[in-house]
């Protein structure tokens, strides 16, 4: 049986979420747009989303979450970097801000469904099982960023762009004369200008005496090769900006915030085939089923490798990969797939934990 | 899993009867048709026999038929070979606005070499109207090239009318008959066609073989230089397994053309009726009646064509979005947008092309799968919420 329903659409003011709202409106749902105010001085997105809602003739609500965004996303992001991790703020923002604060607010207004412009699919199977699947467009596919959404919230989620391609979405925006059709792709991390987190972090939280964050650069045997001005400046696998001069190619192979030591080594030292994953969110029992043939992606632009998963605790996994993986960065998300289905995900834990 | 091939405009499986003759010429009759000994003579005889069969289905003389390495080569030879050879007579070419890339890009190459090219816009059925072709002709026009059947929407052009107006105006007329040959009647004499390209792999023959009919008296410049084969127009030792395969494939088509056209049209219409009866917002592109028997080109509004294609593929059904020759590109089909579809409609379109191996059971199964897949995708897209 088909019915029309009420849908709250998270609108950033960009092309994707605008077309999402337009498609759901066209399909006859009662649709309203919700835009988050995340930071001071950030009103472009909201203005743009407001114009789109006006064009579509749907209500537009703005939600001021500046305080919560700072507390739940930006500060943990900084903390993780200072702790030598490589954070994934978009994953957290989806779970805590969009499917958290925004959806709670909309649900309070009696909306039955929540929609975003992510390129991933949510399907409810005949056995009433909810499945999160990769999006159709291989260039835009975003299921990686959604692993942290609780399964019961995916059940009330609509992702209309999961079965579409970006080119088609732009075409729809043009044909509907949405005032966002030619807007550019948004940048990687929305709160960091130019995607240069190092400058941003140093400006925001300068080292009080220039020495507090300083540490040693060491080789695999512990020999000191030089000094650095903060663990947060490094990511596992990083090659540039090590300040170690020429010679053989060196990469960051380890970061220990307790001793503030950054370890470097050759390309071979970056490779590993066993990982510990914490903060696991299970989206299908197949995550723990020994018969499943799983693959794991350890970063967004990653095709994935075969993985064997052992459950070590409530939300702790030991993962062995079928082939060695390179530059595993603690703090990043490890997302598990069975074919196209996301069966769960977690955060890659550092060795020192 | 059941597998159904519904992409016969992309290519066809080789008919078992054709395979038999190809094998014979791969293994036993391997001679070079130019050799004087018996090994060569028996093959030369088969070469001329194949020519007779392929020519028969066009109603041209065998001496007017030249084997090529496929449809694209035949189209290029016709356009570029003719224009270059006859440049002293004029420098203007007219082509249809939704030609296959073999003609479209062949004409672009001529443009780069200083020829002027006019592209005639199709009507909303994808037909190139003879009056529009007439309007495009100038005193400097030496060649008109309009496809017989469009490879995406399946519309059949009135080649006879375009042929006679070109004949009256003294302009040479080429048609790309790759999609129609063996499926729709074509008579180059009656239709006043001066050159026509055909391909083997669209008619259950092997890939890499085609032919160009060049009316007696029309001169083209060879595109390659070497021996004396094919009257010097297309030189190099003949691809005998391919050529005898094409010959046999043409012979089978000649026998079955009317019954097969009727069978495919009827199955196509059943599929169309079932889909439109059970799904809302589906429209057909191309001409409602004047179309290739097995071609069904449908826009499933609100559904991404490629998503549907992949759903069907998982159920074993092979269809295409646009034509195989233009898939992989990120822009929507130029044919569909030229006949008035919006970009998003073009991206919601699939081409289903039936052929010899398909049965009534295939149609029933495919209709079930298409209907349920479209409903599912529409539900996932938030179009209708399943509760």
Verbal overview:
The complex is a heterodimer of chains A (353) and B (387). Chain A has 353 residues and is of the alpha/beta class. Chain A has three domains: 6-175, 3-Layer(aba) Sandwich (Rossmann fold), CATH 3.40.50; 210-265, Adenine nucleotide alpha hydrolases-like domains (SH3 type barrels); 271-348, Translation factors (Elongation Factor Tu (Ef-tu), domain 3, Beta Barrel), CATH 2.40.30. Helices cover 24% and strands 30% of the residues of chain A. Chain A is built from seven helices and 18 strands. In chain A, the strands form three sheets. Chain A has a six-stranded antiparallel barrel with strand order 13-16-15-14-17-18. A five-stranded parallel sheet of chain A has the order 4-3-2-5-8, with helices on both faces. In chain A, α1 (15-26) runs parallel beside α2 (44-56), α1 (15-26) crosses α6 (166-175) and α3 packs antiparallel against α4. The termini of chain A are far apart. The mean pLDDT of chain A is 92. Chain B is α/β, with parallel strands linked by helices. Chain B has a seven-stranded mixed sheet, sandwiched between helices. Chain B has a three-stranded antiparallel sheet with strand order 9-10-12. In chain B, strands 1-11 form a two-stranded parallel ribbon. In chain B, α8 (305-314) crosses α11 (360-380). Chain B is globular, with a radius of gyration of 22 Å. Chain B starts with a strand and ends with a strand. The A-B interface holds A 1-5, 7, 20, 23-24, 26-27, 29, 113, 115, 121-124, 136, 158-160, 162-165, 167-168, 171-172, 174-175 and B 302-304, 306-307, 310, 330-332, 342-344, 347-348, 377, 379-387. β1 (2-3) of chain A pairs antiparallel with β13 (385-386) of chain B, so a sheet runs across the interface.
